[in-house]
C-alpha cells in the first residue's frame, strides 16, 4: 500500500507540482520553439516523453554498471540513440511532423529535461520508479506545451489544432483537420506565433503558475542561475578540480 | 563513488579504473550502434518510399490529369519530370527547384504545361517563420501562380498580370518562391532547347 | 562570394539570431545573463566552441558519414564530438592558457548540452552550406549569441532596481523583458536582404 502510494507520487508529481516546464524551468528551448501550433507541440511532447521514459528505464537499469566518472558521456550516448531511433521512426511514419519540427527533433538530445531527470532521478532510483517518473514528467511536458501552443495558435493564427491530420494519420485516414476561429483567423495577432510572443506567453504562464503555487503554499519557480542545468554538478566539480 | 576512492587507491587502481570506464563506455556505444543500425535497416526502405510518395503526390498536384511521370534530369536539388498522359505523350513538366529564403533553403515544385503556363505550385521544403513565411504553403498564395506564364514573374503589393501578391510580412519568402518558379520555367525552356540541340547533334552524327 | 558570406554572417547575427529568433540556447541566456562579466565570458566560450565544433563536424560528416551512407548517425556522432571537443579545449586551456582558463573554464562544461552548438552544426548541414559558409554561419551565430547576451544583461541590471508586480518578479518579468528584446530584433527583418540586393 505504502509502496503503491510512493510510486503513484513519482508519476503524478511531474504533472503539476513539479511540472518540468512551469515549475522546474527545464527544456525552455523546445517549449518556446515548437509551441507555435498545437499539432507540432503535441508531436514534440510525445517524442520527448518516449525518449525520456526509455532513457530513464535504461539508465536506471544500468545505474550500478556505469562508472560514476563517465556517467555523463554514457547518458548522452544512451539518450542520443533513443533520439535517433525516434527520428527515424518519425521520418518513416509521420513525415509531416519531421518537417514541422525540423532541427528541434534531433535537438531533443540536449533537452535538459532528459539529462536532468537521468542525473537527478534515474541514476539513484529503481527501474519502475524511474519509468513512472519519466512518464509523468513527459506528460507534464506535453501539458505545458499544449497550454502554451493553444494560446499562441488561437491568438496568433486564429486556428486550433490545424495540421492535426498529419499526426492522426498514423492511426488511419482522418478527415478532421482542426478548427478555424471565425473572426481571429482573418485578423490574427501574428506576434503571438513569432519569437516575442513565445517569450511573452511563457512569462505569463510562469507568473500564473507562481501564483497558483503560492496559494497552495509552495515556492515560486526561481531562476537559480545554472542550478536547474543538469551539467551544473559536473561544472562545479571540474571548476574546483581546476583550481586545486 | 569512484571519485572518492582515487586519493586512497594506488596508481594500479587508477589504471584499472580507467580501463573499466573505457570498457563500460565502449560496450554502451557498441550496443547503441547495433540498435541504431537495426532500426535503420528496418525504417530505411520505408523512409525512401515515403519521400518518393510525397514527391509523386506533389507532382500529381501541380500537373492535374497526368497519368505517369518520367525523370528527365536530376542535378542536386533540381529535378525535371515529364508528365505523360494515358497515351504516353508529354502534357507538361513538373520541376523542383531550390532557392534561399528567410529561414534557409526552400524547395518548390512547379507544374508547367507545354505552352509555358504554370499549372500549379507546391512547397516541398520550407523552414521560415510560422505565421509569416510559412503562409507560403497556403493555397491563397500558391494559387496566384496558376494560369500565369512562367519566367518573368514579379512580387508586388497587388496581384495583376505577371505580378504575385506578397504574403503579408514575408516579402522575402514570397520572392524566394517566385524565383523558384521563374527558375523552373527557365529550366524547361532551356531544357527543351537542349533537347532540340541534342536531337540536331544526333542527326548530324 | 564575399557578398554572400557577409549576408550569411549578418543573417545569423541579426535576422536569425540564435537566441531571440531561433530559441536556441535559452538556458544560458536566462541563467548567466544576470551580470555583464559572466555574460561576456559565456558568450566568448560559446563562440569558440561553436566555430571549433563546426570545423570538426563538417569534415566528419562530409568525408566519413556521407560516403559510408551513415547519415542516420549524425546526431549521436555530433553530440559525442562536441562533448569530447569541449573536454579537450578545457584540458588544453588549463594546461597552456591558465588566464583564459580562469576566465572561461567554468562555462565550458555547460556548453556541452547547449542546444545552440549542436543546433548550428545541424543547421549548417541542413542548409547544405560548404565549409567556409558553415564556419561563417557559426561565427555569426556565436556573435549574435553574444550581442543578445550583452544587451539582455543590461536590461536585467535595470530590472533589479525596478518596482515589479509581485507575481511577475523574478523569472516572469525576465521572460517578458526577453520578449521586448526579441521584438527589437524583429525590426532587422528584411535589412540584410535590402543591403545586399
Helix-strand blueprint:
The complex is a heterotrimer of chains A (244), B (205) and C (197).
Chain A: H1 2-12, H2 28-34, H3 38-61, H4 71-93, H5 95-101, H6 112-122, H7 127-157, E1 159-160, H8 164-168, E2 179-180, H9 182-186, H10 195-215, H11 232-243
Antiparallel strand pairs in A: 1-2
Helix pairs in contact in A: 1-7, 3-4, 3-6, 3-7, 4-5, 4-6, 6-7
Chain B: H1 2-5, H2 11-62, E1 68-75, E2 78-84, E3 90-101, E4 104-113, E5 118-125, H3 139-142, E6 154-156, E7 163-165, H4 171-204
Parallel strand pairs in B: 6-7
Antiparallel strand pairs in B: 1-2, 2-3, 3-4, 4-5
Chain C: H1 2-15, H2 26-31, H3 36-65, H4 74-96, H5 98-104, H6 108-112, H7 115-126, H8 131-160, H9 171-186, H10 191-195
Can you describe what's shown?
The complex is a heterotrimer of chains A (244), B (205) and C (197). Chain A has one domain. Chain A has eleven helices and two strands, in the order αααααααβαβααα. Chain A has helices spanning 2-12, 28-34, 38-61, 71-93, 95-101, 112-122, 127-157, 164-168, 182-186, 195-215, 232-243, and strands at residues 159-160, 179-180. The model of chain A is unreliable at 234-244 (pLDDT under 50). Chain B has a domain at 63-204. Chain B is elongated, with a radius of gyration of 26 Å. Chain C has helices at residues 2-15, 26-31, 36-65, 74-96, 98-104, 108-112, 115-126, 131-160, 171-186, 191-195. Chain C has one domain (8-192). By secondary structure, chain C is mostly helical. The chains are: A mainly alpha (244), B alpha+beta (205), C mainly alpha (197). Chains in contact: A-B, A-C, B-C. Chains A and C meet through α2, α4, α10 and α11 of A and α2, α4, α6, α7 and α9 of C.
Feature tags:
heterotrimer; A: 244 residues; two-stranded antiparallel sheet; 2 strands; disordered C terminus; C: 197 residues; globular
N-end to C-end Cα span of chain A: 49 Å
- The coarse silhouette of chain C is globular
Q: What integer is the average pLDDT of chain C?
A: 87
How many distinct folded domains of chain A? Answer: 1
The profile of the biggest β sheet of chain A is: 2 strands, antiparallel
Alpha plus pi helix count of chain C: 10
Query: What is the count of distinct domains of chain C?
Result: 1
Rough outline of chain A = globular
Class by SSE composition of chain C? mainly alpha
Q: Helical proportion of chain C? A: over 70%
* Biggest interface pair, counts: A-C, 57 and 54 residues
Distance between the termini of chain C: 14 Å
Amino acid at each position: 500500500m505504502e509502496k503503491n502510494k510512493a510510486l503513484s507520487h513519482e508519476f503524478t508529481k511531474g504533472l503539476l507540482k513539479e511540472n518540468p516546464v512551469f515549475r522546474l524551468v527545464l527544456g525552455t528551448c523546445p517549449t518556446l520553439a515548437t509551441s507555435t501550433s498545437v499539432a507540432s507541440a503535441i508531436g514534440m511532447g510525445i517524442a520527448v516523453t518516449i525518449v525520456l521514459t526509455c532513457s530513464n528505464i535504461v539508465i536506471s537499469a544500468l545505474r550500478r554498471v556505469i562508472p560514476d566518472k563517465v556517467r555523463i558521456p554514457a547518458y548522452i550516448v544512451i539518450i542520443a540513440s533513443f533520439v535517433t531511433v525516434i527520428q527515424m521512426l518519425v521520418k518513416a511514419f509521420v513525415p509531416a511532423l519531421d518537417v514541422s519540427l525540423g532541427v528541434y527533433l534531433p535537438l531533443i538530445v540536449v533537452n535538459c529535461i532528459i539529462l536532468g531527470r537521468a542525473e537527478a532521478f534515474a541514476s539513484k532510483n529503481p527501474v519502475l520508479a524511474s519509468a513512472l517518473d519519466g512518464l509523468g514528467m513527459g506528460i507534464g511536458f506535453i501539458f505545458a506545451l499544449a497550454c502554451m501552443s493553444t494560446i499562441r495558435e488561437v491568438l496568433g493564427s486564429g486556428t486550433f489544432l490545424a495540421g492535426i491530420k498529419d499526426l492522426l494519420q498514423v492511426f488511419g485516414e482522418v478527415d478532421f483537420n482542426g478548427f478555424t476561429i471565425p473572426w481571429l483567423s482573418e485578423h490574427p495577432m501574428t506576434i503571438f506565433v513569432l519569437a516575442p510572443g513565445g517569450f511573452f506567453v511563457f512569462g505569463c504562464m510562469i507568473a500564473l503558475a507562481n501564483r497558483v503555487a503560492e496559494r497552495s503554499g509552495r515556492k515560486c519557480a526561481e531562476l537559480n542561475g545554472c542550478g536547474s542545468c543538469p551539467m551544473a554538478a559536473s561544472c562545479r566539480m571540474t571548476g574546483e578540480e581546476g583550481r586545486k | 563513488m569512484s571519485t572518492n576512492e582515487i586519493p586512497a587507491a594506488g596508481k594500479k587502481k587508477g589504471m584499472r579504473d580507467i580501463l573499466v570506464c573505457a570498457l563500460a563506455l565502449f560496450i554502451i556505444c557498441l550496443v547503441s550502434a547495433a540498435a541504431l543500425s537495426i532500426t535503420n535497416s528496418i525504417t530505411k526502405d520505408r523512409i525512401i518510399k515515403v519521400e518518393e510518395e510525397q514527391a509523386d503526390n506533389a507532382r500529381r498536384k501541380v500537373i492535374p490529369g497526368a497519368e505517369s511521370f518520367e525523370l528527365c534530369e536530376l542535378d542536386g536539388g533540381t529535378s525535371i519530370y515529364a508528365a505523360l498522359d494515358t497515351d504516353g505523350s508529354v502534357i507538361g513538366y513538373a520541376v523542383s527547384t531550390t532557392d534561399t529564403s528567410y529561414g534557409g533553403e526552400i524547395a518548390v515544385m512547379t507544374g508547367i504545361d507545354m505552352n509555358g503556363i504554370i499549372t500549379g505550385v507546391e512547397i516541398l521544403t520550407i523552414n521560415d517563420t510560422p505565421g509569416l513565411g510559412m503562409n507560403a504553403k497556403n493555397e491563397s498564395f500558391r494559387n496566384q501562380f496558376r494560369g500565369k506564364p512562367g519566367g518573368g514573374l514579379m512580387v508586388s503589393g497587388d496581384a495583376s498580370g505577371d505580378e504575385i501578391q506578397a504574403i503579408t510580412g514575408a516579402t522575402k519568402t514570397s520572392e524566394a518562391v517566385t524565383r523558384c518558379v521563374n527558375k523552373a520555367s527557365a529550366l524547361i525552356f532551356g531544357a527543351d532547347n537542349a533537347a532540340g540541340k541534342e536531337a540536331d547533334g544526333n542527326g548530324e552524327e | 562570394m564575399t557578398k554572400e558570406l557577409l549576408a550569411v554572417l549578418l543573417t545569423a547575427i541579426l535576422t536569425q539570431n540564435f537566441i531571440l529568433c531561433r530559441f536556441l540556447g535559452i538556458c544560458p541566456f536566462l541563467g548567466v545573463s544576470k551580470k555583464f562579466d559572466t555574460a561576456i565570458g559565456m558568450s566568448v566560450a560559446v563562440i569558440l566552441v561553436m566555430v571549433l565544433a563546426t570545423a570538426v563536424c563538417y569534415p566528419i560528416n562530409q568525408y566519413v558519414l556521407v560516403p559510408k551512407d551513415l547519415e542516420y548517425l549524425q546526431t549521436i556522432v555530433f553530440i559525442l564530438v562536441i562533448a569530447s571537443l569541449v573536454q579537450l579545449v578545457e584540458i588544453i586551456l588549463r594546461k597552456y592558457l591558465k588566464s583564459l582558463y580562469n576566465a572561461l573554464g567554468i562555462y565550458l562544461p555547460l556548453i556541452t548540452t547547449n542546444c545552440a552548438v549542436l543546433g548550428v552544426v545541424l543547421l549548417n548541414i541542413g542548409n547544405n552550406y560548404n565549409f567556409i559558409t558553415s564556419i561563417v554561419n557559426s561565427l555569426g551565430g556565436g556573435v549574435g549569441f553574444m550581442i543578445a547576451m550583452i544587451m539582455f544583461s543590461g536590461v536585467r541590471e535595470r530590472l533589479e532596481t525596478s518596482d515589479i508586480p509581485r507575481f511577475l518578479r523574478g523569472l516572469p518579468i525576465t521572460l517578458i523583458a526577453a520578449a521586448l528584446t526579441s521584438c527589437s530584433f524583429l525590426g532587422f527583418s528584411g535589412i540584410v536582404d535590402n543591403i545586399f540586393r
